Amino acid sequence: MQCIDESTMRTSIRNIYIFPTRAGWLFLLALVVMWLFGVNYDNNLVLLTALFGGSAFISALFITWSNLRGIIIFPEATTREVKAGTGVPVSFTIDTANRKVYGVKIWSSCSEATTPVDLAPGARLSVICQDEGRGIFRFPRFKVYADYPLGLMRASFYVEAKDQAVPLAEFTAYTGLEMTKVMAPLKRCIAEGLLNLEQDTLAITPKGHLFVNAMLEEFL
User: Fold this and answer.
1) Which of 108, 96, 104, 114 has the alpha carbon at shortest distance from 138?
2) Long-range CB contacts for residues 60-64, cutoff 8 Å, separation at least 24
3) pLDDT digits (tens, 9 = 90+) for 39-85
4) How much is the pLDDT for 83?
5) Helix boundaries (H) for the chain
6) pTM for the full predicted model
7) Tell me, what's the pLDDT at 50?
8) Is there a cis peptide before residue 149, judged by omega within 30 degrees of 0?
9) pLDDT digits over 13-35, tens only?
10) φ, ψ for residue 151, nearest 5 deg
11) Among 21, 67, 107, 174, which is most buried by a count of CB atoms within 10 Å?
């Protein structure tokens, strides 16, 4: 099993999603009940408490969002071969723009959520992805999220590792193979749709991911 390379992402207002957590919905429901109770019985103290709770709820929305705003995340996929069924380590270097980010978790469909971590500038997180298949392991989307400070709102964004394309001019330095020796199998793989050559850049196709063993046999 061989792993693909990485991608980079910067968070902004366009890619951070924020929704109430289960506790947030219950808190909001309690505020509505308190407000109705205060209006019905003309109880100013209950109304004041409901309004104070509502302001805390709205404040949590902005604080939770700003906690993840403006950070840059670099997924660093390993390029070494691992055995099928064993964990594939993925590390994340996070640039927090010289501030601290609180309560960050990372989750994907092939890994369990990490424990909440407070991140300093240049911090690193690691996730172990489990997969039983053979061939090239394609990383799923990773969900990075936090519900700081009150646990009422959850801000999240998604990071997706992308396949790496290798420029032909750098093929020998990247793979250690001479172009003159592998040009024939490369042409056969391109003709069969296993590899794609576009603008002097070589990349594996979705069909190549499915038939990676057949593609490797061309070079043996």
Assistant:
1) 108
2) 60/24, 60/149, 60/150, 60/152, 60/153, 61/18, 61/153, 63/148, 63/149, 64/18, 64/146, 64/147, 64/148, 64/149, 64/152, 64/153, 64/154, 64/155
3) 998 889 999 999 999 999 999 999 999 988 888 887 765 555 566 66
4) 65
5) 22-41, 44-68, 171-175, 179-191, 206-210, 212-217
6) 0.62
7) 93
8) yes
9) 888 999 999 999 999 999 999 99
10) 75, 10
11) 67
Query: Which residues, 6 or more positions from 14, have their beta carbon under 8 angstroms from its beta carbon?
Result: none
- Is the separation of the CB atoms in 99 and 175 below 8 Å? no
Cα–Cα distances in Å, from 205 out to 32, 191, 210, 211, 216? 53, 12, 9, 10, 14
Contact predicate 9/21, CB 8 Å:
no
Alpha carbon distance 130, 103 (integer Å): 24
Cα dihedral 70/91/170/135 (nearest 10): -130
